[in-house]
Amino acid sequence: MMGRLPFIAGNWKMNKTVGEALDLVRQLKASISKVEGVEVAVAPPFTALYAVQKELEGTTIKLAAQNLFYEEKGAYTGEISPMMLKEIGCHYVIIGHSERRQFFGETDETVNRRIEAALGQGLKVIFCIGETLKEREEGRTFAVVERQVERGLRKFREMEVKGIVIAYEPVWAIGTGKTATPEQAEEVHRFIRGRLEKLYSREIAEGIRIQYGGSVTPENIKGLMSLENIDGALVGGASLKAETFSKIVRFKEM
Ligand code: PEP
To answer: Residue 193: which H helix or E strand, with range?
Structure first.
């Protein structure tokens, strides 16, 4: 794995009140705060970020937000700026999740602007890409992923790209219980790393972590993590319970 530290992140999506979020994070602290050799982050909804950050102080579990807007401030009702996230202790921000692309009109161009704004504030980015079922069935997986990588990372230099983690999430596998087989995932991860090498350099491509996302569970994590180009997971449904998320984080012990 060329020394890439495995990275498991939980995307809670639009789940958990503040009270529920604190319950979950307290359980996670008890079960995974001593796990070594893996980086862990949780992405609660905006309303719970501040409280969760307070609870995470002194632990190695990092805080992530699920989105941001690219402007610094102003008349953008309902939006959250990079600085607001940085101020409350967010380390990561998820950008370009397929649900944002599908339901909220996010495009490769707005994803690119969001990444730029996040990096400008010193936030690290989990940049999501992935093909729909239709695109896969039409044999366009590689073309779609290539376009998303090239446009999403447009204008960024090597220094900036170092602050990015890519999450390959085939849309047909998100929340459906259908995981890509380890071979299907590895094939796309290898392709993405190859594109990064062409766009930047071998050194950069080898250093960037590529997570897999899409119905990751305690049952399938080990197989996925055994592959050369899979460096972690972005976990939705299974991150909502301490028991399942902890098992995923502890994949090395299985
Ligand atoms: C996700 O939302 O990033 C995700 C992968 O969800 P799930 O694990 O529920 O498929």
So the answer is: helix 182-199
